[in-house]
Amino acid sequence: MKKISLFLTLALSVSAVFAQKGKVTSAETLMASGDIMKAKEAIDQALASEKSNTWPKTYIMAAKVYGELDKKGKDDQGTIKAFEFYKKAIELDEKGDAKGKKVGKYKKEIGQSLLFFSGELTNDGVDAFNKENFKDAVTAFEDLLAINAHPYMIELQGEKVDTSIIFNTALAAYNGEMWEEAEKYFNQSVDYKYGGGDAILLLQQVHTATGDSAKMGPNLIKGFETYPGDDRILTSLINFYLESNQNDKALNYLNKAIEGDKDNPSFYYARGVLNDNSGEFEAALADYNKCLEIDTEYFNALYNIGVMYFNKGVEEMNLANEETDFKKFEAKKEAAEGTFKESLPFFERALSVKPEEVAVLESLKTLYYRFEMNDKYKEVNDKLKSL
Q: Rounded to an integer, what distance in angstroms lies between the CA atom of residue 94 and that of residue 103?
């Protein structure tokens, strides 16, 4: 009788195992028929049972059910939960059964399921990003990157580096002010040369936000060497050196840039700014004019030359006003007026490039008034009022 009793106990135990594993099959059938809530009920029972919660298949099915719940708006954390279920399925599959056998039995099924799940994660991340839920967007994108890097997926689809997802993860982290994550993924984007100069400049803003000045110079140098034609990076690099009183380094990079590309007007303009800020009037004028020789409508060069002559005229007029000798005063005043007039054509050319630029209109208004050019004064004054 004891033997029969033991046999019956074992039979009942096996039946219980199959009953709980049957819940997994039921969940699959119910989900296929569209009854997602019943499918959830079935898979939750399988997850709760010790008879089936060590079976990889249970977690594969749980991931599919919860992914579907998210898509149908029944669980807004469903995709995140699904990823955790897939991780558990992989963990159990890599371990094998209680005897250490059947290792990797579900490798192909998990890999194929993850391949489809990747699309769901992408959509979930994009949706969270668009809703400005940046933390969840980062989570979804990081999970996607982890999936692509897993051996199961590599075996199925080969090595894959999704640079667009790396960059989007960085953007989500940046918008969510998750600075550590933003720095990590922008650095990866820069290493993969994805995102162009934007990755460099956004990384620079991350360093600015965290006050990590030690990384600013090297980041911009790397950016300049990688994207020498990106004027924004060059300008940022120059400004960085100027703000840190390293004018020699700024000039050094500009000279290198010009040696490499003698027909780039932006380089001459940038060196003109450097010389301008250093009070080197003639050198700045030569660089601005070289810039305009290449690009006759380079607005900033036109405007800056106008400003240079205008400011020089102000200085000369101040010196004239200091004179006590009338003849010397008149001579210096006349020279100052001539300098003011030198600025006029550059401001006018700048206005033709940007007809509604307030700074240019204000400058011309002052000059037209000074030289009693009443018709032109009225024209720019009316334009300013209309803006």
A: 5
DSSP string, 286-318: HHHHHHHHH-TT-HHHHHHHHHHHHHHHHHHHH
**Whether pLDDT at 179 is above 90:** yes
Cβ atoms of residues 346 and 305 within 8 Å: yes
Domains in the chain, CATH or no CATH each: 14-160 (1.25.40)
pTM attached to this predicted model: 0.64
Burial class (CB in 10 A: 0-12, 13-18, 19+), 45: middle
**Could you report the per-residue pLDDT of 97-136, keeping only the tens digit for each?**
766 777 888 888 888 888 888 888 888 889 999 999 999 9
pLDDT of residue 54: 83
Tokens encoding 146: 């982890």
Close Cβ partners of 81 (under 8 Å, ≥ 6 residues apart): 66, 75
pLDDT tens digits, one per residue of 239-274: 888 788 888 888 888 888 788 889 989 889 989 988
